[in-house]
Amino acid sequence: MHAASREALANATLNLDNTLSGIDNAVVVAAQTGTEIFDVVDVLDGDRGLRVAVAEASAPAEQRSGLVKEVFGGKVSAVTLALLTDAAAQVWSTPREMRQGLVALGRRALLQSAEQQGQLAQVEDELFRLSRILEGQTQLTQLLSDKTTTVAAKRQLLASVLYGKVSAVTEALALQVVGRPDSNLIDDIANLSALAAELQGKTVAHVIAAVALSTPQEQALAAKLGRIYGREMSIHSEVDTSLLGGVVIRVGDEVIDGSTAGKLERLRAGIV
């Protein structure tokens, strides 16, 4: 995002957080708000003229907010409408970036709903596991990314796969990703998992191990990495038997390769 859009999103996010923190029945309201914001994004995706008009920086803020009220008043809750009109009053660099901002707000609202229910860690883990499943199920991922298939059909397919296997918030977040991935389907879902960790004050450590880590091993690794990086860590682990032994750890852009395969490769390179 450009600087203006980053500032607009920061303001809109602060408004969302303040609104949800001071409201009764926050679980229901946050879930409803997130769902309704995504419904609005769907409307904007289907109407280019409206999408441009609500983000037209040269138009007065009152005009943009008034247009949002005119179009969506009575169709969404009062809380959602207030958040949308505030977002429209912000200065966004492009309509595309305003749309991205609304998607971010919808995601944050749903994650806050999970947090209010004490399910945020569960949602974080479910989203990460889903990203790994999609990484391994290439046929399913191709179907969900097929540009010739309608968004509704792709969401119905994913819903049938997820039904009864994940929490309601995880399913809602995963379904909204389909049809509007920020990068690609797998990365977008993994990024949502990282966002859930961030809302818990944690940083994700992506760990690839030769054999599955036990819960005590993950806890010990999280504690060790926490001491190294000076912040609480959330371990996202998966198995790759080709490592032969040990682990590869990625935290942000930093990679720690303690695998047997990595050590052998470095040994071979040194010999050559």
Can you put this structure into words, describing what you see?
- The protein contains 13 helices and 4 strands.
- It is α+β, with helices and mostly antiparallel strands.
- The protein folds into 3 domains: 1-117; 119-200, no CATH class; 203-270, no CATH class.
- A 4-stranded mixed β-sheet has the order 2-1-3-4, with helices on both faces.
- Helix 4 runs antiparallel to helix 5 (78-89) and helix 9 packs antiparallel against helix 10 (168-177).
Short description:
Helix content is 66%, strand content 8%. It is an alpha+beta fold. The protein has a 4-stranded mixed β-sheet, sandwiched between helices.
Question: How are the elements arranged and paired?
Answer:
Layout: H1 3-21, H2 26-45, H3 48-53, H4 61-72, H5 78-89, H6 95-116, H7 120-136, H8 138-145, H9 151-162, H10 168-177, H11 185-199, E1 203-209, H12 215-229, E2 233-239, E3 247-251, E4 254-257, H13 260-271
Parallel strand pairs: 1-2
Antiparallel strand pairs: 1-3, 3-4
Number of strands: 4
Low-pLDDT segments, ≥5 res:
none
Sheet/helix structural class: alpha+beta
The helix/strand order is: HHHHHHHHHHHEHEEEH
Beta content comes to 5-15%
Work out the helix count: 13
> What Rg do the Cα atoms give?
21 Å
Mean pLDDT: 90
| Major sheet details | 4 strands, mixed
The total domain count is 3
Q: In percent, how helical is the residue content? A: 55-70%
Looking at the structure, what is the overall shape?
Answer: elongated
- Main-sheet strand order equals 2-1-3-4
Distance between the amino and carboxyl termini: 45 Å
